[in-house]
Amino acid sequence: MPRVSEKHMQARKAQIVAAALRCFRNKGIAETRMRDIFAESGLSAGAVYNHFPAKRDLLRHLAEESRGKWTAMFADLHAEAEERPGQKLQRLMEELLDGLADPEIVADIGSARGMWAFSSHQPDLRAACGDLFRTVAEGFAALLPAGTSGAA
Questions:
Q1: CB 88 within 8 A of CB 75
Q2: Most exposed residue of 4, 85, 119, 135, measured as fewest CB within 10 angstroms of its CB?
C-alpha cells in the first residue's frame, strides 16, 4: 500500500475536525454520532477511524487544540510589554467580542462548552477539558489588575 504524505494526513485530519465541528454545531455533541461525521466529511468510516478511533478521541483532540490556541493567545499578550495587564484584558475581551462574528471562533467556544458538559459522562475526557479550562482561567487571572484576582 502506498504511503501518504504527512501533509495529506494533516489535511485529512483537518477535514474530519471541520466536519465534526459542523455536526456538533448542528446536532450537539451528545447527539452527534460518528456516522454523522463520516457523512459530513465525505470520508469512509475507516478513513475517520484511522485518525480518531472514537468520538472521545476527537473531542480530546479538540480540547487540546483549543488549549493550544488559548496558550498562544495569552503568550502573545504577555509578550506585549507596553500595555498594562488591565489594558491587555480589555483588548482581549474586545477581540473575543469581535470574533463572535467568526463561525470558527463561535464553534470553538461552543465546542469547549459542550465538551465540558459531555465530559461529565466521559471520565477520560475530564482531564483534557480540565486542562483547557485551567489554561483559560489562569490566562485571564494573569491579566487582571493587581488585587482583583483573589477571592473576597
A1: no
A2: 4
Residue owning grid cell 469512509:
44
The C-alpha atoms of residue 141 and residue 48 are separated, in whole angstroms, by 38
Q: What is the pTM of this model?
A: 0.77
Which residue's C-alpha cell is 480589555?
Answer: 90
- Residue closest to 138 by CA, chosen among 45, 67, 41: 67
Residue ranges in the chain assigned as alpha helix (H): 6-27, 34-41, 45-51, 55-79, 85-99, 103-119, 123-143
pLDDT tens digits, one per residue of 105-119:
555 656 666 776 777
